[in-house]
Design brief:
Blueprint (H helix, E strand, L loop, with lengths): L1 E2 L2 E2 L10 H6 L4 E2 L3 H18 L6 H11 L2 E2 L4 E2 L3 E3 L5 E3 L4 E2 L3 E4 L4 E3 L4 E2 L4 E3 L1 E2 L4 H5 L2 E4 L2 E3 L4 E2 L4 E2 L4 E2 L4 E2 L4 E2 L7 E4 L4 E5 L2
Length: 199
Amino acid sequence: MCEGGAVVGPIDGDGRTLRERMLAGEWYIADDPEIEAAARRAHRLMEAFNATAADDSSRRHELLTALLGGLGDDTVIRPPLYIDYGSSLSVGRRCFVNYGLVALDVAAITIGDDVQIATNVQLLTPTHPLNAAQRRDKWEAAQPISIGDNVWLGGGVIVCPGVSIGADTVVGAGSVVVDDLPSGVLAVGNPARVIRQLT
C-alpha cells in the first residue's frame, strides 16, 4: 500500500480482521464480508429512520439509539440521514441536525453538545490511495472527525477526513474544511479560512 508515496506494510500475518484494521484507521479492503454485514445492518436502520412519520419522534429516537454509537439527550436529527455504519457516529446533547446530513463514519465522528448542523452537510472520514491500481483493488482507510461543543456548520459545509473543529466556531455555508479550525472563530471558503475571532 502507498500513502503519499510511502510504502505501507502488507496485511499478511497481521492477525487482525479487515474490520479491526478499518476501525484502527489503517488500510483495509472495503468489500470484506464482515464489513459489508455491518453496513447492511446500519443501512436497514437508516432506511427505517428515513421513512418515519414526521410526528413519530419516539420511533425516530428508538431507531437512532439502535443505529448510532451515542445520542445525547434532547438532540434532534431530521431525516434523511446518510451513514456508513452509524456505530462510529456519536452526537452530543441538545444538538440540532437539519435535513440531509451525510456522515460517512468509517472512522469515528464525534459531535459535541449544542452543535447546530444545517442542511446537506457532509462529514467525510474515508480516504483512498492516490495510486489507481490500489483504488481498483478496493483499498481504503479513514481519519476521524471531531466537532466541538456549540459549533455551527452552515448549509452545504464539507468536513474532510482528519479534521477537528474547536468549540464555539462557526463555518459559513458552502465551505470546505480541510484543516483543523481553532475554537471561537468564523471560517469560510474553499478551503475554509479563518476570517475573524468570535467573542
